[in-house]
Amino acid sequence: MITYQQISKTGGRDNNEDSAIFVEVNHNYCFVVADGLGGHGKGEVASQLVAEVFEREFWVNSLNNENFLASTFQKAQDEVVELQKLQRETGGMKTTAVALTIVEGQCSWGHIGDSRLYIFEHDKVKLRTMDHSVPQMLVAAGAIKEKQISTHPDRNRILRAIGGEWDSPKFELSQNKLSLAECQAFLLCTDGFWEHITEKKMCKLLKRSKTVKEWLDAMEAEVEKNGAGRNMDNYTAIAIKAR
User: For position 193, what pLDDT does the model report?
Assistant: First the structure.
């Protein structure tokens, strides 16, 4: 049985440019978290549009899971770029996005930017997406350690975003479907969330929690505690338990 819970908060900012949706169609699911970039409300417009595109497309194509993520990311990109042209706004109307589908017992995911998906099994992180960011590249090059990403001075330098120019590959998409039976839980979240909580703490709180709400509430408390006095960014998360 799939259970899920969502939060989206302004943090220390005046406006929330994050967006999130979850859609359930005949016991199939789509979850999306997006983090708008650019400020002045333009990032919010981009993130909301991406969420709306995924929601609309999943209602129509929930069973076309083989191509759903690729086609929907492309449609989201096309619609954001078109809106940029209409509003003559090419600088700030951009967003990251991470999407997870669970269809007929199979999981697929894709992302662009530094909004993340974590997959858990046996109260441990089984997998997480790799950020399209400067610090993640430095980790790959061996210049810094993984744990330094959240505090790196270039942590906000995103290499790919919806609404920006896309180079190939446009986004990362799992090439092999992962069975839901192999997954205990999932977490989709923006950088304003994950930079204030360690994977170790996520796992510890997952092990302690009886419900998905209890797990997400506990993680949010940790994020708020660690982000206090640090001019926190907006933070958004969707927590999902498969069992």
Answer: 97
